[in-house]
User: Fold this.
Amino acid sequence: MIQPAFILVRPQMGENIGGAARAMWNFGLDRMRVVAPRDGWPNQKAVAMASGAGRLLDEAGLYPTTADAVGDTVHVYATTARSRDLTKPVFTPEAAMKDARDRIARGERVAVLFGPERAGLENDDIARANAIISVPVNPDFPSLNLAQCVLLTAYEWRRATEAVEAVAMEMAGTEAATHVEIEKLAAHYEERLSEAGFFFPEAKAEGMKRTLRNLWSRMPLTRADVQILHGILRQIVRWKERGE
Assistant:
């Protein structure tokens, strides 16, 4: 899928440019544009910080002004934490990247502006944008590091364009136990507990067995779990028999 261009406007520190490149590539984004970097271009500190994402810096477009950087785009978002005297729709990063996904699917070229570390985007930059992205941060400390802002936005792009399970179970080489396996485990414990006189008094025995079986059925057991629980019980029985 075509991606949005991430445009770093007048970035000041090479380390932050490199950190932004890493953040982009973490989430599969590689269309970086850089506008008038303070310390020139290429920047060795950016290269060092980018680590495995150095390709983004090699292929990044270098532009003299924000107007040049957004010239071929159709829809532009500007990231800012401050209220401005400009009337524009304001998106969260999540909503913005969903909107960007839909616009790109319709054939639009999309870009996101990120401002310099010291004060963020200027009003002249924001005036060129169609919408604002505002991160819901602590109002008493709204300033985000450049690479952090890029990371948040790139993460939301990934969420908007990739089917990712919200929760997944890592099975670590095993698989879920079947009902038959859990039934055999329940029967094993019931048998040994009966021999130990656990189900007492007799009038309550059936209810206790039912409660125990319900306990097993509620547990998300793997086959490895079942084997361990069988082994624990066998070892306890052997230990008791040796003690006798």
Remarks:
- The radius of gyration is 29 Å.
- The chain has two domains: 5-161, 179-243.
- Residues 223-243 form the longest helix (21 residues).
- Strands lie at 5-9, 32-35, 61-63, 75-79, 90-91, 110-114, 131-133.
